[in-house]
Amino acid sequence: MTYSAMRDNMILSQGVRRVFKEETMNKEVKDVIREIRDSTGLSRKAFSEKTGIPLRTMEDWEAGRRKPPEYVTKFMAYWVRMNMVKKN
Question: Is residue 63's pLDDT more than 90?
Fold first, then answer.
């Protein structure tokens, strides 16, 4: 990987981290989870399979029927960041 590509990946990662951090401060958890998943372009089923989170659990979180532990949203945002960096 060239220096330019590494720099671009780092900038992308920092930008995604900042956006998720700023956006999540005043939103409900269900909306944050949905936005994180939507940012990947994956369906609930595909996202569930990739992250290992059961589909029914994802559905319940996004519908607001259940609330995940705080570390889960952090894990999801981290997972998305790392996968975005790998693609670039």
Answer: yes
42 exposed, middle or buried (CB, 10 Å; 0-12, 13-18, 19+)? Answer: middle
- Per residue in 11-55, pLDDT (tens digit) is 455 545 555 555 555 678 899 899 999 988 899 999 999 889 999
Buried b or exposed e, range 44-70, using 16+ CB within 10 angstroms: beebbeebebeeeebeebbeeeeebee
Domains and CATH numbers, the chain: 3-87 (1.10.260)
